[in-house]
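sanity check this record:
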Amino acid sequence: MSVAPTRVYAARLVGLPIFDPQGDQVGKVRDLVVSMRIEGAQPRVLGMVAEVFGRRRVFLPMTRVTTIDSGQVYTTGLLNMRRFEQRSTETLVMGQMLDRTVTIKSSGVSGTVYDVAMERARTRDWVLSRVAIREPNKGLRRRGQTHVVEWDDVVGLAREDDRQGATHLVAAINEMRPADAASMLHDLPFERRNAVAMALDDERLADVLEELPEEDQVGILERLDSERAADVLEEMSADDAADLIADLPPETAEILLQLMEPEEAEDVRRLMKYVENTAGGMMTPEPVILGPDATVADALAHVRNPELTPALASLVYVCRQPLECPTGKLLGLAHIQRLLREPPSTLVAGVLDDELEVLRPEATIDDVAAHLATYNLVAAPVVDENRRLLGAVTVDDLLDHMLPDNWRERAAERRG
């Protein structure tokens, strides 16, 4: 096995691509699996948790890792697609070791673990060799001093720690895409998952919740106090919040809706009135809506919003006042590709597609799929009987509802 550098820190490994001998990417590194021994003895690194297609997590033994460097990991061949299941004798470095409170034997200093390093031993096994520790903060503006010490100079890593926080794991999760963060959170032990979720800020937790299975969403939300849960729901997209609230006991759902900001709660209540798996049940009430006096420059400024998904940014909906759903009469749609070909001062109303068929809120999931396919769209308007815009259905909303709950696992199994 060739390795450069000889010492590798776990936090820097997370997210690195994994390649097979032909140079094809087969996954990403998500964690390290180690076998803890007696206090002070260097744990043996058994392998890596690799995330493959469909967010499936599988085990990559260290014996099959040929090269590690600053940008990638290479293996001897294809990965075994059997889902990773942690054994009682195994510990996850990122998921369970970060944020443990430990003591440096030689100095008596205590702090929390924020990284660990692994390297090759004389036996050719990989072992955890060093621990990066940060002392508690010294006041509001002074960060605690950091130390990197040998593994055998640390006490507290071979036992369970009821005081274990989440600071450094949260920092690692904050660097990931929401879908990747959700995958890591999902695989944590139950109590650890809830501790990390509670340490995330409202906006980040909302992003991650949208990517989690319903069971995890409900479990995390129910552990939050009502005020915090309402704040997190406000940060979620209205359609995702409506789906999540619908899974809660009715009395809990009503309490949270009462605590949310009235405008946010109204959007959610309105979506909850529609039947699941209809256009009304899938739509988002926050597409890009402009009046007929808006210019192309105005429209392009709106679709540049980084919080918009590509599907929502593909169309601008031109309506009469009011310009919030439910709007005044929908006048037509402006396609982003058409807008990019027009002078900035041109009125959007002059480049409208006003003949495109629209969807009604009761349209079935099959109707929505056929509509998007027929007109080669990634989003479509949903209107009422007076042609007032109620919202927009996007192709990602459609796929979320069309695919079975376990589609990711099934896709990974077919690939294996």
Residues 289-401 form a domain with the CBS-domain fold (CATH 3.10.580.10).
